[in-house]
Amino acid sequence: MPTTRDTAPTILTMSDNPQPEVRINQSVAILIDGNNIERSIHDETNDPNTMINFDTLIPRLLDNRGLNRLVYFREGKKISEKLKERLHTHYHGSVRPCHKSADIPLTIKATQLASKVDTIIIMSGDSDFIELVSHLKREGVRVEIAAVKRTTHHLLIEEADYYHEIIADDWFSLPPKKSSKKSRKQ
Questions:
Q1: Closest listed residue to residue 126, CA positions, set 93, 108, 109, 101
Q2: Residue of 32, 45, 30 lying closest to 172 (CA atoms)
Q3: Could you tell me the pTM of the whole model?
Q4: How far is CA 10 from the centre of its chain?
């Protein structure tokens, strides 16, 4: 003799059913105009010892998306070994010294990555990147800008798909370096 279940089907209402989990499978490259960002936060804080806190900023920028590349472009040859090591260790990132400004090397890297990532985040408020943002968008790449609002050109914000404001929570100040006085023997 066949058996039947004594339970009635469960009917879920919208209030009973939590939001379905959405998995974001997006590949992101973060390209940093180091001199521009450093100048911006130094202007904002009036403190040349202020540095970006990558440990809070990068996760906020990624927002559960995957990090494909992180490249920190910086003018000049004097680049902190600690910064290089930290970016490599924590984000498999690299630091690229630039002969003059970061504009051309960053632009070249962005166009090289356009077919390899879904989103490029440019950390700079420099209006020189407006045409790059426009070009990348025409190539089908989502382009986001991350910068200090006061030093970011409004047309760059308007051209981008999204703007992340870099705020005080995203930086910290190093204690001033103590000047070492060598004792002189007389």
A1: 101
A2: 45
A3: 0.82
A4: 45
The CA-based angle 71-52-26, given to 5 degrees, is 45
DSSP letter assigned to residue 161: S
With CA atoms as reference, report the closest residue to 37 among 61, 10, 15.
61
pLDDT along the chain (186 residues), means of 10: 50 63 87 95 93 94 94 83 88 89 95 97 97 98 97 97 96 77 48
Number of Cβ within 10 Å of residue 173's Cβ equals 12
48-173 CATH, one of 3.20.20.60, 3.40.50.1010, 3.10.129.10, 3.40.190.10: 3.40.50.1010
Residue 77 to residue 99: CA distance in whole angstroms:
8
Cα 104 versus chain centre, distance = 18
**Sign of CA pseudo-dihedral 7, 13, 16, 17:** positive
DSSP 15: T
Question: Taking Cα atoms as reference points, which of 47, 41, 39, 49 lies closest to residue 174?
Answer: 49
Cα–Cα distance, 67 to 59 (Å, whole number): 9
Strand partners, 122: 31, 145
